[in-house]
Amino acid sequence: MTQQSPARLAGLDETQCETFRRDGFLHPVDVMPETEAKALRAQIEALEARKHGRLSGLTRAKPHLLLPYLWDVVHDARILDKVSSLLGPDIICIGSSVIDKPARSDGYVAWHQDATFWGLTENQGATAWLALSDVTSGSGAMQAIPGTHARQLRHLDTADDKNMLGAREAVDSQPDLGRAVWLMLKPGQMSLHHPLVLHGSGPNASDDRRLGFVIRYTSAQVRQEGGSATLVRGRNLAQVPLEVRPEAEMDPAALKRHADIIRQAANVIRTAKARHLAETAAGKDQLQ
After folding, report:
1. CA pair distance 281, 266, nearest whole angstrom
2. Do residues 149 and 214 make contact, with C-beta atoms less than 8 angstroms apart?
């Protein structure tokens, strides 16, 4: 029998890959010891203490461009080996987020498909949702509906400030909640989900914050017109503008680059949102 290479052993097995392809998500996937995940949480909370409160909305977007330890997580082989099983050897990160639901808070995430306003040339991706706290039904864990990643659905703007999504979007139909699956995680575990799988999450009714670090990976063949990306493995096949590692935590040069990148990303979302809503208003049967 031919012995598998260590790199392949660190990836997903065929059953896991088939589950992702069929359902549009996979969980739980072990990434790191719980103690290591709690240490990452402690680093984030130490920064918050120095900043006298929760991270700002801007800092929570693409924080790996401001915090070297999150840059390292985005490049962590324990994550990338598994993502490579789904996307191949050439991978970029188009975004990351620190997603925080404070204890006993009423923020929620409406049912949606991630890629709706991303402006991608192709929906070849996998989002890694790494838990830094216990993620339970009581703390507002994500739910996903299997098999809903086959096509783009219509979305609308909820204009609801409690909806934590950046564009306040929601799918313009009632999901079949009877089929929804809880994606509950322990610190150090992650879920993986497809850019088009329908998912959402409720408020955090627990006594602890629900904290996660979320990394949005795509095949390096994909472009996000007007956006930049971090090359994490292999070749920059689509020749997208590449981001660089921060010199130090919240370094002034990194802060300046980050501000420009977030402005560009906001424009990408605005453009994609306007196009989607115009197509929806026109009653197009096939959304792009």
Report:
1. 22
2. no
